[in-house]
Amino acid sequence: DLPTLLAALRPSGTGWVVNVGAGDGACGRRRFGEVVDPANCLLREGAGGVIFEGNEELAPALVRLFAGRPDVALYAGLVDPEEVASAVGRYAKLVRGRPLDIVKVDVDNCDCCFLEAVLGALDGAGAVRPRF
Length: 132
Description:
Blueprint: H1 2-9, E1 16-20, H2 38-44, E2 48-53, H3 59-66, E3 72-76, H4 81-94, E4 100-105, H5 111-124
Parallel strand pairs: 1-2, 1-4, 2-3
């Protein structure tokens, strides 16, 4: 379950996150208690990473949360898997040696296409694949 996942990731403090479909950056709970977005939770707790959100109306909320964080690369607007791969590859080279804790993809179409692109970019950058 997601609370267990978050508990497993929090102690590292050195990892980074890829969040494709970050929404408004929320880390809350839904009606039945499930965590909305574990990647957002880690980012809000200080993890660095790469954030993508296709809905530009949600960008101001993400900017408020993560503006001024040099360890966070934020991309607002529609992107394709190749653009995601390129951005993740650049970030992976910047943080070489740091573990990638989690990749979360929720884009409502071809999530697997984006995940494959991220994993390919990590391999191309010589980065370690995520634990989760």
